[in-house]
Specification:
Helix content of chain A: 25-40%
Shape of chain A: globular
Largest sheet of chain B: 6 strands, parallel
Distance between the termini of chain A: 43 Å
CATH architecture of the largest domain in chain A: 3-Layer(aba) Sandwich
InterPro entries (chain A): THDP-binding (IPR029061), Transketo_C/PFOR_II (IPR009014), Transketolase-like_Pyr-bd (IPR005475), Transketolase_C (IPR033248)
Strand order of the largest sheet of chain B: 2-1-3-4-8-7
CATH superfamily of chain B: Thiamin diphosphate (ThDP)-binding fold, Pyr/PP domains
Strand order of the largest sheet of chain A: 3-2-4-5-7-6-12
GO molecular function (chain A): pyruvate dehydrogenase (acetyl-transferring) activity
Enzyme class (chain A): oxidoreductase
Order of helices and strands of chain A: EHEHEHEHHEHEHEEEEHEEHEHEHH
CATH superfamily of the largest domain in chain A: Thiamin diphosphate (ThDP)-binding fold, Pyr/PP domains
CATH class of chain B: Alpha Beta
Structural class of chain A: alpha/beta
Largest sheet of chain A: 7 strands, mixed
CATH topology of chain B: Rossmann fold
Radius of gyration of chain A: 19 Å
Shape of chain B: globular
Oligomer: heterodimer
Number of domains of chain A: 2
Keywords (chain A): Oxidoreductase, Pyruvate, Thiamine pyrophosphate
Number of domains of chain B: 1
Helix content of chain B: 40-55%
Number of helices of chain B: 12
Distance between the termini of chain B: 67 Å
CATH topology of the largest domain in chain A: Rossmann fold
CATH architecture of chain B: 3-Layer(aba) Sandwich
Largest interface: A-B, 49 and 48 residues
Radius of gyration of chain B: 22 Å
Strand content of chain A: 15-25%
Number of helices of chain A: 12
Cofactor (chain A): thiamine diphosphate
Strand content of chain B: 5-15%
């Protein structure tokens, strides 16, 4: 099976879908002549030409809105944000137009499109370029929110996203574009709403997604060295969420830790804890813990950033705590 | 009835002076009686619809925000006439006039204001979110300026698919300072989209007059920065407005060049029903009333076309009856079913929430 980087899997997904469907186009800053700020669209301009691989001025609100307006006319836009941090500029377009138009037009219009790009902290980018946006978007009915951590998932889920009739926020990771993995040559799609058990185990459930996945897997490896068996659940799909997979695992392990990028207050981590306590209260042997950013803006300085980010060591400490090992 | 049969005293009770009448005659030169009567009838339908809305609001039948189009009707009528089938109107929260002009059923419009299932969008939108795709009304947007990039997206789709459609995007003078307007126009300019941007300058951004919101009074001065053509004029008659809008529509369709139009107009009511408009003097309102396109059309019909009072009264009575019937229908129409709240959230069908912890009782 071919081994691809995540960036190549993303490119292949877009290329295949653009070949399959004339209505699909890619729009964003530097996606064309520059081949993508992170090279996710490498070669696409040469292959499809400027009609379908469209460089934009720096106008997140402008091109997000163009995508929405085009989707309402039946096209299938892929809008790339150079980073989801810039999607904040277009937040109103996503919140009030993409997410609402099917509803407020009583179904006269739909917005079948994908907003994609890297999300959350990378390395020493400071407070405005290091934020996790699933916590904002997963709050909003009308949207779907996906976060990927492997090339296989990236390709299969992005193809599903492009074919979905709803607006999909597709979250990638700047630090993980070079992560390699097996990707089948034949076509496949991964349905939304299905978590993937990235590592089976029976002592502690570790729920994670996106950039949290390698942190959780490393922590699980460290825990295994201490005879603590962790089941690492990669949600992949944050909205809709595979609640059944979470609950099934917690009923088995009776313990859960949520590992993710983002602040502790509000957001997806709190949502998961709420679901677990309501649906598996009697199965819990310990409080559910969260390992995420400290409740602080991200500083540039490397030592300070490392203190704030969720690390395998902090995740391991939480795993030990819910297992009552120290 | 022909013009010669019109009542001889049709204009005798008017108070127009000679200069006003001369301008009136110039504006209506070459227009047929039937055309002017049609424009009058269509404008009056919007006005009577809006007046009925105001009464219903006062009686507590309509809640939320209600922004009336009284004074600006000629723009919607001219737009309808300047469009071709399939062209799109994208507008704001002051959009009833476009719906009526484009042929939406006043019953469905009134029912929407009343929050009823038979409303234009099933009662989920209210006054601010009128959409009637079949008739070319593509919104209905209520976050000021956020429809400008979306409208550019419709025009982009026309360019992408070659469907030959033109998108007409309306906004108020209060919108031109907000970011999405700049971004949407920048994109339309760089991509050479088939779109017409129309600023309906009704003199007030809610209660704030132009001189306190516009660094440069002439909004069309911005057109050069986007590579747009531009046009700017007082809206005093439907046909002049139609002609100049039509030029912009053709420019969009044939040359793919956007135009920025500033249509100087006036709303005679407050910004919304909760605004008594205390920020302006009665004299100002009276001065504008002389230029109200509806009043001018009525005056033209009386003085130039010699249409008898009885005929004009009969038109009015028919329209009032139509609108009364629409509001009566809205009043009696059923509210949306409880299950309606689950509809049109997601494409897949009814949506009850993402978690077993938050779904309504009885829903799996």
């Amino acid at each position: 099976m071919p081994i691809l980087q995540i960036r190549q899997a993303i490119r292949d997904a877009m290329k295949e879908e653009m070949e399959r469907d004339e209505r699909v186009f890619l729009m964003g800053e530097e996606v064309g002549y520059y081949n993508g700020a992170y090279k996710c669209s490498e070669g696409l301009l040469d292959h499809f030409g400027p009609k379908r691989v469209i460089d934009t001025p720096i106008t997140e609100t402008g091109f997000a809105g163009i995508g929405i307006g085009a989707a309402m006319c039946g096209l299938r836009p892929i809008v790339e944000f150079m980073t989801f941090n810039f999607s904040a500029v277009a937040f109103d377009q996503i919140l009030n137009n993409a997410a609402k138009l099917r509803h407020m037009t009583h179904g006269q219009f739909g917005v079948p499109m994908v907003f994609r790009g890297p999300n959350a902290a990378a390395h020493m980018l400071g407070s405005t370029h290091s934020q996790a946006f699933e916590h904002f978007y997963a709050h909003i009915p009308g949207l779907k929110v996906i976060a990927i951590a492997t090339p296989y998932d990236a390709k299969g889920l992005l193809k599903t996203a492009i074919r979905d009739e709803n607006p999909v926020l597709f979250l990638e990771s700047e630090l993980m574009y070079s992560v390699k993995g097996e990707v089948p040559e034949e076509e496949y799609l991964i349905p939304f709403g299905q978590a993937d058990i990235k590592r089976p185990g029976d002592a502690v459930t570790v729920i994670t997604w996106g950039q949290g996945v390698p942190v959780a897997l490393k922590a699980a490896e460290l825990a295994a060295a201490e005879d603590l068996s962790c089941e690492v659940i990669d949600l992949r799909s944050i909205r809709p969420m595979d609640e059944a997979a979470i609950i099934a695992s917690v009923k088995k392990t009776n313990r859960a830790v949520v590992v993710y990028h983002g602040w502790p207050q509000g957001g997806v981590g709190c949502d998961i804890v709420a679901r677990i306590q309501e649906l598996a209260f009697d199965d819990l042997d310990a409080p559910v813990l969260r390992v995420c950013y400290e409740d602080l803006p991200m500083p540039y300085a490397e030592n300070l950033e490392n203190l704030i980010l969720p690390s395998p060591e902090r995740a391991l400490a939480a795993i030990r705590r819910v297992a009552y090992k120290r | 009835m022909t013009q010669s049969e019109a009542a001889p005293d049709a204009a005798s009770d008017s108070t127009v002076d000679a200069a006003y009448e001369a301008k009136l005659r110039a504006d209506y030169d070459g227009q047929s009686r039937e055309d002017v009567l049609r424009d009058y009838r269509e404008m009056l339908r919007i006005r009577r619809f809006e007046e009925a809305a105001a009464r219903a609001y006062t009686r507590g039948k309509i809640s939320g925000f209600l922004h009336l189009y009284i004074g600006q009707e000629a723009i919607a009528i001219a737009t309808q006439q300047a469009m071709e089938p399939g062209d799109r109107v994208v507008s704001t929260y002051r959009t009833h006039g476009f719906a009526i002009a484009l042929g939406s059923d006043p019953k469905a419009c009134a029912a929407e204001l009343f929050g009823k299932a038979a409303g234009l969008v099933g009662g989920v939108g209210g006054s601010m979110h009128f959409f009637d795709k079949e008739r070319g009304l593509w919104g209905g947007y209520a976050i000021v300026g956020n429809h400008i990039p979306v409208a550019a997206g419709h025009a982009f789709a026309s360019q992408y698919t070659g469907d030959g459609r033109v998108t007409l995007c309306f906004m108020g003078d209060g919108a031109v300072g907000i970011g999405p307007v700049h971004e949407g126009m920048t994109m339309a300019g760089i991509m050479k989209l088939p779109i017409v941007f129309v600023v309906e300058n009704n003199q007030y951004s809610m209660g704030t007059p132009l001189k306190r919101t516009l660094p440069v009074e002439d909004i069309t001065a911005r057109a050069a920065g986007y590579g747009f053509a531009s046009d700017r004029f007082h809206v005093t008659s439907v046909q002049e407005t139609r002609r100049r809008l039509g030029e912009a529509v053709e420019r969009a369709r044939k040359e793919g060049r956007p135009t920025l139009l500033e249509l100087i107009t006036y709303r005679f009511r407050g910004h919304s029903m909760s605004d008594p408009a205390k920020y302006r003097q009665k004299e100002e309102v009276e001065r504008w009333r002389l230029n109200d396109p509806l009043e001018r059309t009525l005056m033209a019909l009386k003085t130039i076309y010699q249409v008898p009072e009885q005929e004009l009264d009969a038109i009015d009575e028919t329209i009032v009856a139509e609108m009364d019937a629409a509001y009566d229908f809205a009043d009696k129409a059923p509210a949306p079913a409880p299950e309606a709240r689950f509809e049109n959230v997601m494409a897949e069908g009814p949506y009850y929430g993402d978690s077993a912890t938050t779904r309504p009782a009885g829903v799996e």
